[in-house]
Predict the 3D structure of the following.
Amino acid sequence: MLILQNIRYIHPNKDLLFSNINLTVNQHHKIALIGNNGVGKSTLLKIIAQEIQASEGQLKTETKPYYIPQIVGQYNHLTIAEALGIDKKLQALHEILNGNTSEVNFNLLNDDWTIEDRCLEALKYWQLNDLDLNQKMESLSGGQKTKVFLAGISIHQPELILLDEPSNHLDSKSRTLLYDFIQSSKSTLIIVSHDRKLLNHLDTVCELSSSGISVYGGNYDFYLEQKQVETAALHHDIHSKEKALRKAKEKERETLERQQKLDSRGKGKQEKAGVSIIQAYTKGKFCLRQQQLISVTTVKISGRKI
């Protein structure tokens, strides 16, 4: 079993590549790791292979992964046996067969008496019959280098296999061999690839993004169907929200217009009320003045001698 908990990776220049990576891979599962270019698929494989360290988080695995990187030029200076990590075992086997039965040789061989036979069988399966295990890797084509490391799977028989774009340099016959191997393998596989036919041989798709991993239970075609459903649901949700927003804005506009009309009516009434008050006030003053004049006149008249 492989468990990734809150894995986070930050480039040396302090740029965040991805975070919140949580994934459990059970035994015998065959995982396709996909995502946009530059999202960090190869980096995540290297973290699982323990080639590099995550910036944060925990990695738990019960077995040592067998990792085939996308670029293998770094092995050019090695022999095929050295690149596969079997050179010391083969040397110890030949030493023992030649009579050198030292404890060191037996410890190096570790009872792996079939190591050479497995090498020849594995190279034969991948159509590399003519290669010498002491041959330098730099003498091989890109496709041959990839097939050497694919042959290493049968030699080492690992439980967990990590493959980064394994079909890139293979011809059609070699790709068919790869597909057959993936189909029949009992090992746990995590594969980064853009090869749709290869991806359809895997039973789970994990989509990597900068903020985590989304898991889809099915092959690549099933993943595409699920993504179409998600996209349609998202579009429907966006359309519904846009429609609701338009209705809310329309209601807001109508409410504003209604309020403006009410405000306008209220202002008109106030203006009319103001004019009436002024008129009433003016009329009242006029009436009061008249009453005062009448009173004065009355007093004067009252004061005359008759």
